[in-house]
Sequence to fold (164 residues):
Amino acid sequence: MRRTLTALAVAIAAAATLTACIGAAPAATPTQTEHALPSTGPTNPVDDGEVEIPAEASTESGVAALQAASTALTTFAQPDLSAAEWWKQMLPLLSQAAAIAYEGTDPAEIPVHQVTGPGRILEGSTEVSLIVEVPTDAGAYNVTLIRGDPTAPWLADRIRPALG
Fold:
């Protein structure tokens, strides 16, 4: 009983302290916010509410993306390789997020054995992100490709069966 009362007293004291801290924060006055305009420049750009839409993928970019998707899926579709050899071949083709996601993959569990035709870029492609649908012996697969900027190489971010 004594421990319960002590714990209750400590909880009440903590709640009172937190309430006092919250109540102690000064409220912004209209004069403070009216005169505190953000500076402009590369370290503190003004957010004007506009969203910059990446440019659509160019023809040259699309050709590179189709090749990258085919290479990634062909490399992915090697269920007869040892896990170590498969990983050694896959890692340079993957984005950082994909490398984390696919680490530890057992290639023997991959149902794809070969790419069976040319890929096609799905609608909504940009210079930095797109999806290529690639036919395989296990059905169509989508390879999501990304890159940091339009001059960087395409990297596979996700490889999965196509829906539908």
User: Anything to note?
Assistant: The CA atoms of residues 85 and 107 lie 10 Å apart. Confidence is low (pLDDT under 50) at residues 1-39.
